[in-house]
Specification:
Blueprint (H helix, E strand, L loop, with lengths): L2 H12 L7 H16 L8 H20 L4 E7 L2 H18 L2 E7 L1 H14 L6 E5 L3 H7 L5 H6 L31 E13 H4 L2 H11 L5 E2 L2 H15 L1 E2 L2 E2 L11 H8 L2 H5 L18 E2 L6 E3 L11 H17 L9 H4 L10 E6 L22 E4 L16 E7 L6 H14 L2 H11 L5 H4 L2 H6 L6 H6 L16 H4 L1 H12 L4 H22 L14 H4 L19 E2 L1 H9 L5
Parallel strand pairs: 1-2, 1-3
Antiparallel strand pairs: 3-12, 4-10, 4-11, 4-12, 5-13, 6-7, 8-9
Helix pairs in contact: 1-2, 2-3, 2-4, 3-15, 4-16, 11-21, 21-22
Length: 580
């Protein structure tokens, strides 16, 4: 036995790990190299990491004996998945002997391809990292494997004993109405309020703001305050250090990403849904109502008991259009999600109500205008303000959960190998390092690790947010949506008509609600097996609108007095375990 192999063997004996074959020991040597080079920091001890990697070695060997040599998986294009594709796929192959082609594509293309295979029974990939927004679709069509059943049945042999599902923070988002887990979270990020803390801290700007609006410049708690701050920077401050500045940032190009801006909880931030976490019940953040069984969709329009074209929803679209045109850079109207994401880092944006924390890593890069010379951010993040219809207990914003998804059409041994890879890239040995790279936390143990305690100041409030009780109110699209791939595109197509002036916000939301109802009606006729839609009979809006639940009737005061809170007080509340 070579000296390195003897050293590893002694380490495994000390860790209480049973001996493996000579071939497996060779792979443990690879694991040792990866632990030394890439995975030094982990929530596990070194002995626990060796034990976890030994299990992957033996599972990989078993699959190779079944003839599995390679797998093909796919995910959307964000920093976390690029790290998996470039680094973790190679580590997995070295340790298990199974090669991984981890493809990166756009979110829209991924959804289209997944949906096509779900409908046809095809097998384009062995595993998919798909947003949990499709959980209602996965449950109803029956094409996706319930992981709860798989882990207890045919996949039991290939389920990591140290997976520790209880450590994942997003399982409730990937659990269907039957109580079963359908997807394993791989990355998560929220949409939060982003602002230039250095500008907000300037005494001259504070004095000018309070003199004009009658209350302190701070983190806005409601949409009135956000609008006042947008007006202040865009129309009154105008220029800082020789740079034209704006009080708002968004995007408005007629593009599928325009729909994400709305399906990602914009209506719930205004207060259109019912109370209930993770999603409003019986009416969710899309405005879709379900029957008392909490599973059967019965309508999206106000006429059928939904809220998609209700007063809060119309108010939400109105403000989106008004703010984009009045307070954002003119070029924002022709930007997509990907175009707009880096703009706050360029140094001309004072605040953004709806900013995805997936951009955190990009906005901490040395040398950009939004970072100090010492590498600390000039910006901070906080909960987004909510609209005049919002009430305590409602969803407060969106959280993206990209999660491993497996189709029933996948050949069994390919499925086992893809499941093995999914567990590897989310394992405790790996996940802390992945969190450091992409800042898309999935495990409680990573969020609470001393590394993030010591480095929290680098991330502008992200760590404090994820450690706070507030995070539970940021949730993905839920179970009320029965066919996400067919229904999501309806949003951008209709919202765009309000942006262009072709239709009023009310007319645009009326058209959207009608289109959603039509899809629900089609699904009702299709004979969908689980929780198929069953539309309510239409009634006049006067008989549906209410002040007790969604759809909410119009309030007398949609522009209450602006309210703000000092960021330091908000941060301290989070540290003490309070929402604010």
């Amino acid at each position: 036995m070579k000296p390195l192999a003897r050293t590893l063997a002694r380490a495994l004996v000390c860790a209480g790990i049973a001996s493996t074959s000579l071939a497996a020991r060779s792979d443990m040597a690879a694991a040792q190299r990866w632990l030394d080079a890439e995975f030094k920091v982990s929530s596990l001890s070194r002995a626990q990491q060796l034990q976890e990697m030994d299990w992957f070695v033996r599972a990989g060997e078993s699959l190779q004996q079944r003839g599995v040599r390679a797998i093909r998986v796919v995910s959307e294009d964000i920093a976390t998945h690029n790290y998996e594709s470039r680094v973790l796929a190679r580590a997995f192959e070295d340790i298990t002997g199974i090669a991984v082609t981890h493809e990166i594509t756009s979110e829209g293309a991924l959804v289209d391809q997944l949906y096509a295979d779900m409908q046809s029974g095809g097998h384009r990939y062995d595993g998919w990292i798909s947003d949990s927004d499709l959980i209602g679709t996965h449950y109803r069509y029956g094409a996706v494997i319930p992981l709860t059943d798989y882990m207890q049945g045919s996949g039991r042999e290939f389920t990591n004993p140290t997976l520790d599902l209880a450590d994942f923070i997003g399982l409730k988002f990937t659990t269907a109405p039957d109580g079963k887990l359908y997807q394993l979270p791989d990355q998560q990020f929220a949409n939060l309020y982003w602002f230039r803390a250095d500008w907000f801290a300037r005494k001259d700007l504070q004095q000018r703001f309070e003199a004009r609006y009658g209350y302190p410049l701070g983190v806005p708690l409601n949409w009135t305050a956000y609008e006042d701050i947008a007006d202040f920077f865009s129309n009154h401050v105008k220029e800082i250090d020789g740079v034209r500045v704006y009080g708002h940032m968004d995007y408005g190009k007629r593009d599928p990403s325009l729909g994400w801006r709305f399906t990602d909880a914009w209506l719930s931030m205004a207060g259109a849904a019912d109370k209930g976490i993770p999603n409003g019940l019986p009416v969710d953040e899309w405005g879709i109502r379900v029957a008392p069984d909490q599973c059967t969709p019965v309508g999206a329009s106000v006429a059928r008991g939904g809220a998609t074209n209700s007063p809060p929803a119309v108010f939400a679209l109105t403000k989106f259009v008004d703010w984009l045109k009045a307070y954002a850079p003119p070029e924002a109207m022709q930007m997509t999600f990907n175009d707009a994401g880096p703009v706050p880092g360029q140094g001309q944006i004072a605040q953004q109500i709806f900013w995805y924390t997936a951009f955190t890593a990009a906005l901490t890069q040395p040398g950009i205008a939004a970072v100090n010379r010492d590498g600390s951010p000039k910006w901070r993040m906080a909960p987004s303000p909510h609209g005049p219809y919002w009430k305590t207990g409602m969803q407060n914003g969106y959280q993206d959960v990209g999660a491993w998804t497996f189709l029933r059409s996948t050949p069994p041994n390919q499925l086992h190998a893809a499941w093995l890879y999914a567990q590897f890239v989310t394992s405790k040995t790996v996940s802390l390092r992945k969190s450091m790279v992409g800042l898309t936390f999935i495990r409680e143990s990573d969020i609470k690790h001393p590394y993030f305690t010591q480095n929290a100041a680098r991330y502008g409030g992200l760590v404090e947010f994820y450690r706070s009780p507030a995070r539970v109110a940021w949730t993905p699209t839920g179970n009320n949506v029965p066919d996400y791939p067919r229904m999501a595109p309806l949003w951008w197509a209709n919202v765009a008509t309000a942006l262009s002036g072709e239709k009023s916000p009310q007319a645009a939301m009326d058209a959207l609600a009608s289109a959603l109802d039509n899809v629900l009606a089609g699904l009702q006729r299709s004979g969908m097996k689980r929780c198929a839609p069953r539309l309510n009979a239409p009634l006049p809006a006067s008989q549906r609108l209410s002040d007790k639940g969604a759809p909410w009737r119009k309030v007398d005061l949609e522009q209450p007095r602006g309210e703000t809170i000092p960021y330091e007080r908000l941060l301290q509340a989070w540290k003490e375990g309070r929402v604010q």
